[in-house]
Write a structure and sequence with these properties.
Order of helices and strands of chain A: HHHHHHHHHHHHHHHH
Oligomer: heterotrimer
Largest sheet of chain A: none
Number of strands of chain C: 0
Helix content of chain A: over 70%
Mean pLDDT of chain A: 79
Distance between the termini of chain C: 8 Å
Largest sheet of chain C: none
Chains: A mainly alpha (326), B alpha+beta (568), C mainly alpha (335)
Number of helices of chain A: 16
Chain lengths: 326, 568, 335
């Protein structure tokens, strides 16, 4: 799933050079005359000059490295209970303190981060892919608009909790049997979040596509006989990139929080499996006694979302030929 | 006015019957918060604690249990016994005398016809009455005269105080509910939301699942009570917020059932506006051990049934070691604080029924390991997990989703790993876990796990029917749509015979003796591992006087005696 | 456009019927039991009796048909009776909640005021704040204002209300004692003083909710404005000598509204649906709390009715959004 996902969201990039030629002002002949230069290089050059994007990218890499490589440096088991040292404040032995059962919060943050970051990103990508795909199809092909938008209405109307309960009932055992307990639940949760959160993206993308497909450059492309799929990938998608990017940043936050909602409803990972959302939720009761317990997961979620947001900003600018050209 | 306040203050400070000279409605409003919101004020149609307790302000039974579990007459003039002739010699009938002069809140007299009607209402086959077990064995209820009711049972009933005793079995007005019998019961919205009662308050407005406002009952039998003119009964939210509203911000006067971590309660108490109070009923948090094999490899319909005994959980060494490895005082300290006690018993209360034959308040990991080694259950393949007859000791441990239970799961998993038992944890949404949906694999009755943890209790003070939950034929099975109370599928001939004997025995001491034996058989034969005797922890504002926490009946049983402390 | 609207409205009827069927089947399939909240001390045989009394023994298609009749035929009659004092619905069985044994619609009507007060106000506040922030952030991209806006809205969005709600309660109710931590749904506004009380109890939930909505809206507004500010027509407009205000607030804004209109249209049914977590945290007890309570108690008639009302609103507001697209950008045609 993730593979097709990536290739599909990346399709617009391939079409960008062509899109830039279609934009009035950049003459096709001139472009051809200059020595061929990889468009990815252009994108990267532009991306590098975007300060926010670089900060976002570094921060994001840092977070990912922290949660995946951190456990090699900080080797305390996140589920190890040390009841004598429970509810401790920060110390050298436990830099982030310990929780009510004496588990090391730093270790739990790292292991929770692995789950949260991977669930957040995969679920967001899935929702984004579904949303953009359905949105573009509905906006572009008049015949598909009705059925697809009614489908969107249906999904918007479905009550989330019973839907998740049904999914758990039907698919938990088969998936656990096929992929093992943890991976099975991971797939289930990612799918659950993905297929219950693509609808706003689809509506937004469709709205934009409806407007863009009537613009002059699309009509021009059509008049020279460009096929539908090429119009979509080269002209439409690059122009709806910014709402997609915003959906992506908001989507990652929603996915991390929804995952925590699922686990405290008993629909998510087993209870001994920390995630950021869950740590935050568990910490809320102790807000007055041990404020650091909500501070760390809250900070981690916010930083991840912020870094993805800046990353998205930079990526959008870098992929926008009008800005890149300047 | 000033003199009156002074007087009241003086009376309150001497603590001598503080309400004696108070007048009805003089103390203004009292506000109560329940984090579960009442949906209906007719306990016969709901059975939920929130509904029973909110209704107890309005409708009352003939007799209630007090904070020690003793019966006190409410609408009756005395408690019928064999000695005073109220209960027949052959134990097949009980005759209640209604206290004279009681009126409903609409001014009409309260008579035996109302009592008889209540029985007809609940015993109606199409009514779906939630409290019908209170009327178990009742063959007839007769109104002998206006103030006398005779209840006849189909067989000698040593404990005839089921009907009309306690908050679950109050009396409703015949005139009001006359058209609501049987299938029509749910259609009577007005009646169900605004029952006419004999209690200290009447409903002024009922917003289902949100808030109820009550006003003092002008026709209440004690002219000086209740001291409060009105009650605001708010529902919804969570226990943390309820506790905070009473103990930290002082917005509310009484918060019900604060299941919170002890340190959270302690922190709230520092707010200085309220005090937590705890009381202990028979509620026990326990681990049930599945006597049958829940393996997913078995075909559906045979999984977790008596057809396949569990591969290792019936081995005394295994379940004894599992119990020894648990540090119960620590569980109490972490999970319940002052609202918990260590227990080894299934029936820890009332005190007369609490068996003292076992102790379990020290953890003994070494002893548990030795016990398993002795029984030949050792780790043969070096993976750190013991095997019995080639079956590794791996258990699935499920419970409902709840912060304290998840902490318990983590701790117990850790301890069991130290005696070579591997545990897989699973938590299930409470509404699925405790729901009886036979189509769901995750209900506690289906028990598709090796061990599961939850709490259970019984109403009133007599454990006979509760102890019946260990009877062999009460095991949930596919033929009975997985309904049944014998969750661990415990089956023991001696137990069944002894329980039959209990049903025929009269006299508290003799009954208590048998009940303790039943308790011991269940626990010592590995039906369950009792963990914590759980109390009820509620909190009241420091300015609220007269609160007596009662776990045997509605918590609000004596709200007529509540008053506002002055000068504090 | 009128043709389109009428056609879509007609088409909405089968759509909604289909949606109601899907919701019904979903609820049927979901594990759960209306007796789950009844204490364990009530034995299973009694629970079975209670289930039968709720009508659960009947086959599925009969129950669905009953709901359709009750909702589409009897409930409108009740409404007419209520408005004109007629007696069409006398003796008919309405949609009855399993939890409260009372008509679902009565409870819904009871819950609407607090939901509209709190969630509705939060939405209005959020729109009023988010649009200017989004516009100005885009106009002055990467200025300190934009950076601050980005930071605050992103942190605001990533902090879930179960945390931010409790945080403001601890700060403003427990520590400072300024606002009540529990919303009083029985409060009646009939004077200036009572209005102040109402404001006080609304401030915190509105703040928490508005933060989330503002974050979302302002991001979409900003992104959409940025897309349009670089377009050629903007250059043309400026070249024509139009004032900067006209260029931004008329030309660019109008063309940037499509995604924002979509998001707002998706949000309005949510106003009615209430904010489940925020309502829980502040004990507002509106529609959101009603829905989650009904789901937890497996009160199927209540869940079915509420979700169906949401479905109607969703279909309706998405239609309104589609019509608005055509007004904002006349090039969009649906025929």
């Amino acid at each position: 799933m993730t593979d097709t996902d990536k290739s599909d969201t990346l399709i617009p990039d391939e079409g960008l050079a062509a899109a830039s030629t279609a934009v009035p002002g950049a003459g096709a002949m001139e472009e051809l005359a200059t020595p061929p230069r990889s468009q990815w290089r252009d994108v990267w050059d532009q991306f590098k000059t975007h300060k926010g994007a670089m900060v976002g990218a570094i921060l994001f890499l840092f977070i990912v490295a922290g949660v995946y490589l951190g456990p090699y440096l900080w080797s305390i088991d996140p589920t190890q209970i040390d009841i004598r040292s429970r509810n401790q404040g920060p110390s050298w032995a436990h830099p982030f303190g310990t929780d009510q059962l004496g588990r090391d919060i730093l270790a739990r943050m790292m292991s929770g981060g692995q789950t949260s970051v991977s669930v957040g990103i995969t679920a967001m990508l899935l929702a984004l892919f579904l949303g953009s795909f359905i949105g573009v199809l509905a906006g572009f092909f008049k015949r598909l608009d009705g059925p697809l938008m009614r489908l969107t209405d249906l999904f918007l109307a479905l009550p989330l909790l019973p839907l998740l309960l049904v999914m758990m009932l039907l698919f938990r055992e088969p998936l656990s049997a096929a992929f093992g307990l943890e991976r099975g639940i991971f797939i289930l949760i990612v799918c659950a979040i993905g297929i219950t959160s693509w609808m706003p993206t689809a509506r937004i993308v469709r709205g934009d596509v409806l407007a863009i497909k009537e613009r002059e450059f699309v009509l021009a492309a059509r008049s020279i006989g460009t096929s539908n799929s090429q119009i979509i990938t080269r002209h439409i998608l690059p122009n709806v990139l910014s709402p997609i990017m915003v959906s992506a940043t908001l989507g990652i936050a929603t996915a991390i929080i929804t995952e925590s909602a699922l686990s405290f409803l008993g629909l998510g990972f087993p209870p001994d499996f920390p995630t950021w959302g869950r740590l935050l939720f568990d910490g809320v009761d102790y807000l007055q006694q041990y404020p650091e317990r909500v501070f760390w997961p809250g900070l981690a979620i916010s930083l991840t979302v912020l870094s993805v947001n800046y990353l998205g900003d930079g990526l959008r600018d870098a992929l926008d030929p009008r800005i890149r050209g300047r | 006015m000033k003199i009156k306040t002074l007087l009241l203050g003086a009376i309150a400070s001497t603590a001598m019957a503080p309400m004696a000279f108070a007048e009805r409605g003089s103390d203004g409003n009292v506000s109560i918060i329940y984090w579960q919101a009442p949906s209906i004020l007719n306990p016969f149609l709901s059975g939920g604690t929130k509904d029973v307790e909110s209704a107890s302000l309005v409708i009352e039974p003939l007799a209630r249990y007090d904070q020690d579990g003793n019966m006190v007459p409410y609408l009756a003039s005395e408690i019928p016994t064999v000695e005073n002739g109220g209960v027949s010699e052959d134990l097949t009938s009980i005759t209640w005398k209604i206290a004279p002069g009681i009126t409903w809140s609409d001014g009409s007299p309260f008579t035996s016809a109302d009592v008889k009607f209540t029985a007809d209402y609940c015993m109606h086959p199409e009514g779906g009455c939630a409290q019908v077990t209170k009327f178990e064995g009742v063959t007839s209820v007769e109104a002998v005269d206006d103030l006398t009711v005779k209840v006849t049972f189909d067989k000698p009933t040593p404990f005839p105080y089921g009907p009309f005793v306690g908050g679950e079995s109050p009396i409703i007005q015949a005139a009001q509910f006359a058209d609501c019998l049987g299938a029509k019961a749910p259609e009577c919205t007005d009646q169900n939301f605004n029952p006419i009662g004999t209690g200290p308050f009447v409903v002024t407005e009922f917003k289902p699942n949100d808030v109820i406002t009550f006003a003092a009952n002008d026709n209440y039998r004690d002219p000086a009570k209740p001291a409060f003119a009105s009650v605001t009964f708010k529902g919804g939210g969570d226990a943390t917020a309820a506790g905070r509203a009473v103990m930290e911000t002082g917005e509310f006067d009484y918060a019900w059932n604060l299941q919170l971590a002890p340190e959270v309660i302690a922190q709230m108490q520092e707010g200085g506006k309220g005090t937590p109070v705890a009381g202990f009923g028979p509620l026990v948090e326990r681990i049930m051990l599945n006597q049958t094999n829940p393996s997913p490899d078995l075909p559906e319909g045979e999984r977790s049934t008596a057809a396949h005994p569990h591969p290792f959980l019936q081995d005394p060494a295994v379940y004894k070691a599992m119990s020894m490895a648990i540090d119960r005082p620590l569980l109490v300290e972490i999970g319940y604080g002052q609202a918990g006690k260590v227990t080894c018993n299934w029936v820890p209360a009332p005190a007369a029924f609490n068996s003292t034959s076992m102790t379990c308040d020290t953890q003994d990991i070494a002893g548990a390991n030795a016990l398993l080694d002795e029984a030949g259950i050792v780790d043969t393949n070096g993976d750190g997990i013991r095997e019995k007859d080639g079956v590794p000791l791996k258990v699935v441990y499920q419970t409902s989703t709840n912060a304290v239970r998840q902490d318990f799961q983590a701790l117990i998993k850790e301890w069991w790993s130290q005696i070579g038992i591997e545990t897989e944890l699973r938590n299930i949404n409470a509404s699925v876990f405790f729901g009886g949906d036979p189509g769901s694999p995750d209900t506690f009755q289906k028990f598709y796990a090796d061990v599961e943890m939850y709490a259970n209790t019984f109403n009133g003070t007599d454990p006979q029917s509760y102890l019946g939950n260990g009877l062999c034929d009460k095991a949930p099975k596919p033929e009975s749509q997985w309904q049944g109370e014998n969750i661990s599928r415990f089956c023991n001939e001696e137990f069944d015979a002894l329980h039959a004997k209990l049903a025929e025995t009269a006299g508290l001491e003799a009954r208590a003796e048998i009940a303790k034996q039943l308790n011991d058989i269940m626990v010592q034969n590995g039906g369950m591992i009792p963990l914590v005797h759980r109390g009820r922890l509620s909190a009241h504002a420091n300015t609220l006087g007269g609160v007596v926490l009662n776990v045997w009946d509605s918590e609000l049983w004596n709200i007529a005696d509540w008053y506002r402390k002055t000068g504090s | 456009m009128l043709n389109f609207t009428i056609r879509r409205l007609v088409l909405a009827v089968p759509t909604l019927l289909f949606i109601s069927l899907v919701i019904f089947l979903l609820l049927e399939l979901a594990p759960g039991d209306p007796m789950a909240q009844v204490p364990l001390t009530v034995p299973p045989e009694v629970k079975e009796k209670m289930r039968e009394a709720l009508g659960l023994g009947q086959p599925m298609h009969i129950r669905f048909w009953k709901w359709i009749v009750q909702f589409f035929w009897i409930e409108p009659q009740v409404l007419i009776d209520h408005m004109f004092g007629t007696t069409f619905s006398e003796g008919d069985l309405r949609v009855i909640s399993w939890q409260t044994r009372s008509p679902v619609m009565d409870i819904v009507v009871q819950r609407i005021p607090q939901t509209l007060w709190v969630v509705g106000t939060a939405y209005v506040v959020a729109i009023l704040i988010a649009l200017p922030i989004g516009i100005y952030s885009a106009y002055r991209q990467y200025s300190w204002f934009d950076q601050m806006g980005t930071f605050v809205s992103m942190v605001g969005f990533s902090v879930p209300p179960f945390f931010s709600g409790v945080l403001v309660i601890v700060i403003f109710s427990v520590q400072l004692g300024w606002f009540p931590s529990i919303y009083d749904t029985t409060h009646v506004v009939n004077s200036w003083d009572s209005f102040v009380v109402q404001l006080k109890q609304m401030i915190m939930p509105v703040m928490v909710l508005a933060l989330q909505i503002t974050a979302q809206l302002s991001r979409f507004m900003r992104a959409s404005m940025l897309d349009n500010l670089n377009q050629d027509y903007v250059r043309t407009a400026r070249a024509k000598g139009l004032s900067e205000y006209t260029v931004v607030m008329v030309h660019v804004l109008r063309n940037s509204m499509i995604p924002v209109v979509t998001v707002i249209a998706l949000g309005i049914p949510a106003i009615f649906g209430g904010a489940i977590i925020t309502e829980q945290v502040f004990k507002v007890n509106g529609i959101g709390q009603l829905l989650i309570g009904a789901i937890q108690a497996n009160d199927l008639p209540m869940v079915q009715t509420l979700t169906f009302i949401f479905a109607v609103l969703i279909v309706l507001f998405n239609l309104i959004a589609d019509v608005l697209y055509g007004i904002l950008d006349p090039r969009i045609r649906y025929d």
